[in-house]
Amino acid sequence: MVLLTGFKKKKTAVFISGKGSNLKSLLKFSRIKRSPISINLIISDNVRAKGLTYAKIFGLKKKIFDFKKRKLTENKLISEL
User: Fold this and answer.
1) What pTM was estimated for this model as a whole?
2) Angle CA(62)–CA(66)–CA(67) in degrees, nearest 5?
3) How far is CA 46 from CA 1, 35, 55, 60, 68, in A?
4) Which phi and psi (to 5°) does residue 64 adopt?
5) Beta-strand runs (E) in the chain
6) Which of 12, 36, 51, 76 could bond 16 through an S-S bridge, CB–CB 3.0 to 4.6 Å?
7) What is the pLDDT of residues 35-69, one digit of tens each?
8) Among candidates 70, 76, 4, 67, which has minimal Cα distance to 41?
């Protein structure tokens, strides 16, 4: 018989472009035991976005895309997700 340990969290990607204040709130929420999400990827269009430091602090994967090259980026983004 399999021991049930709770529900499985949904893997989540967060899009940011600046300071990452919403990302910070989402990270805080995702660390709660009963939260339905776990943040696994941070996506940004800005190399200098301060919110990318959260990826380093929390050990999260980050990707930076140039959304000006729309078609190429959409395909890359879809394959990443």
Assistant:
1) 0.75
2) 110
3) 49, 28, 14, 17, 11
4) -120, 125
5) 10-16, 37-44, 61-64
6) 51
7) 999 999 999 888 899 989 988 898 999 988 776 76
8) 76
Report which of 54, 48, 43 is spatially closest to residue 21, judged by C-alpha positions.
Answer: 54
H or E segment to which residue 23 belongs: helix 21-30
In the block, tokens 């976005």 appear at 49
10-30: b (≥16 Cβ within 10 Å) or e: eeeebebeeebeebeebbeeb
Integer Cα distance of 30 and 24 in angstroms: 10
* CB-CB neighbours of 51 under 10 Å: 21
**The two structure tokens encoding residue 3:** 């021991």
Can you tell me whether residue 37 is helix, strand or coil?
strand
